[in-house]
Amino acid sequence: MTLRPRMLFRIAAVISALYAAGHTFGFQAFRPPSAQGQAVFHAMNTVFFQVDGARFSYGEFYLGFGLFVGAALLLVAVLTWWLGNLSIRSPDETVVPGAAITAFHLMGMGLCLRFFSAAPAAFSAVIILLMVVAIVSARKTRQAAVGYK
Hints:
Strand content: 5-15%
Largest sheet: 2 strands, antiparallel
Number of strands: 2
């Protein structure tokens, strides 16, 4: 059985949404296991500084940027779902946005391997594989529709 581009994009979108949810809830639930890590975590949330007249802690920056990354991952999931619809009407038009999303996940995978762990990198790897296969499949579908060999 061959999966059509639409289904491949949709599977990638669902995995992307799971990745977004895992990131958003996971980073907020993380608590350092060591005493040193707990001291850093405590300091991040109790040491404040001023920026443009507003008072912040490093913990608030961490939380804010973490939620922003979760929102960005969710946006990528929505765009990936949209590519599934686009692959039916205009398969050639999935190439550029699909390649951009794939590049996003390639960069994310590299950053995860360098700074985090294998689990989020694995999500990106699966999404990358699905995206590449979906894009190639969409191109072949288009070529078959216009009679190319």
